[in-house]
Amino acid sequence: MQVTRTTEIWVGAFVALGLVALFFVSMQVSNLGDFKSSRGSYVLKAHFGNVGGLKVRAPVSMAGVTLGRVERISFDASRYEALVEMRIDPAFKQLPEDTSASILTAGLLGEQYIGLSAGGSDDFLKDGDEIELTQSAVILEQLISKLMFNKAEEGKTEAKKSTRDAPMATSAVTTSAPRPIQPPDAVPSTSVVPEAAPVPLTPKAESEVQQKNKSKSPKSSHKASAVKRSSAPSSEHHASPRADHASKKKAH
Predict the structure, then answer these.
(1) Distances (CA, A) of 186 to 178, 192, 223
(2) What is the pTM of this model?
(3) Could you tell me the sign of the dihedral formed by the alpha carbons of 128, 134, 135, 136, in that order?
């Protein structure tokens, strides 16, 4: 009986410790684990065009160090923008007046937080002051839509350029090149017809051609000697009257 009571006590204590651990884990996940006393803290305001997924209790950090938390997010009907109120820890009271605030994302798809960048002013922000320099959250869907829109516009411009260049290219191909103007003294070029190559003869044909040439050669020599003989007397006959006439002139 006593053993059963001790086991029950140990089991109850173990369950209680588990509940306490679960409570602290939930506090850390919900950004409530860093809750501190509001004594000495001050509130800063900032307007954003789009806060994206920013939530209350989101960290406000500078150079990776948490300076405070987002206390309230509301809509400003006069400016049609989101109004964010940040509670800054009293240990960080010396923030320049020209400090800028941006909504950033922890990692690729992590939670969003406010990142502060210090300026160079000698005056510091006080309780209730507003940060003028702000940058809204980057929306992934808007980036994708802008990228797709730019790609579509580039495709349209390229298609228009191709359609404009196509008629010019076809006209350049169809138009014939002008013929060169020849000077008046230029001699027209005549086409040279290549000579036909001699047809090879058979041995019988060559022997027949040689016999024909031999038979023709005596006749041609005989004709040449006859022509010489016939031309010689005629030249002598024509030359003698002239010589007689010249001798008569000398005698007179």
Answers:
(1) 18, 18, 49
(2) 0.49
(3) positive
Coil, strand or helix: which one is 126?
A: coil
Sequence-distant (≥ 6) Cβ neighbours of residue 124 within 8 angstroms: 93, 94, 95, 96, 97
Closest by Cα among 46, 172, 138 to 99: 46
Q: How far apart (Å, rounded) are the C-alpha atoms in residues 85 and 88?
A: 10
DSSP-based three-state secondary structure for 135: strand
Which two tokens mark 110?
């992590």
Per-residue pLDDT of 76-133, as tens digits, reads 999 999 999 999 998 898 899 999 999 998 877 778 999 999 988 889 999 999 999 9
**Unique residue bearing structure tokens 């839509």:** 145
Q: To 10 degrees, the CA torsion angle through 219, 225, 229, 231?
A: 90
Which residue(s) pair with 103 in the sheet? 114
Q: Return contacts of 36-43, CB within 8 angstroms, 24+ apart.
A: 36/89, 38/87, 39/90, 40/90, 41/68, 41/87, 41/88, 41/89, 41/90, 42/87, 42/88, 42/90, 42/93, 42/126, 42/127, 42/128, 43/71, 43/85, 43/86, 43/87, 43/88, 43/127, 43/128
Please report, as a single letter, which amino acid is at residue 240: S
d(CA 1, CA 131) in angstroms, rounded, equals 69
Distance CA 67, CA 99 (A): 13
125 with 90: CB under 8 angstroms? no
